[in-house]
Amino acid sequence: MTATTPDRTVDASLRASSLWRNWGRSEASRPVFRASPSSVAEVQAVVRAARDRGLPLKVVGAGHSFTAIAATDGILVDLDNLQGVRAVDQQAGLVTLAAGTRLFQLPELLAPYGLALQNMGDIDRQSIAGATSTGTHGTGLAFGGLATTITRAVLVTGDGSVLEVSETVNPELLPAVRLGLGALGVLVELTIQCVPAFLLHAVEHPEPFEVIDEFRARSENADHFELYWWPHTDKVMTKTNTRLPVESGRKPVGPVANWVEERLMSNGALGLMCNIGRIAPKATPGINRLATRVYGDREYTDFSYEVFTAPRNVRFREMEYALPLDEVPAALHELRAMIDASGWSISFPVEVRAAAPDENWMSTAHGRESGYIAVHRYVKDDPEDYFRAAEQIFLAHGGRPHWGKMHFLDHTTFAERYPKFGEFVSARNKLDPDRVFQNPYLERVLGR
Question: What is the CATH class of 199-401?
Answer without folding.
Answer: alpha beta
